[in-house]
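User: I'm preparing a small set of examples for a lab meeting where we compare how different chains pack in three dimensions. I only have the primary sequence for this one, and I'd like the structure in token form so I can line it up with the others. Please keep the answer compact; I'll paste it straight into my notes.
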Amino acid sequence: VPGSPADGAGLRSGDRLASLDGVELRRSRELAARVHAMRAGRSVALAMVREGAKDALRIELGARPIARMG
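Assistant: Understood. Below is the structure token output for the 70-residue chain.
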């Protein structure tokens, strides 16, 4: 999604995420859980498969948006 954190990190539609900081991601929800447990501003390595080839990015985690009530 244009303007999303994933877009800003350089991820593209169709990328298959393989690991975060060297820890394998077996299910898509694992990424959200691991990122949620980390502090904003931390630099992490993200390994992926893009168009059949292995690739990697180093990204800085952004601040989480504040949820609105009501």
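A couple of notes for your slides: The first strand starts at residue 16 and ends at 20. Residues 13 and 42 are 24 Å apart (CA to CA).

User: Perfect, thanks.
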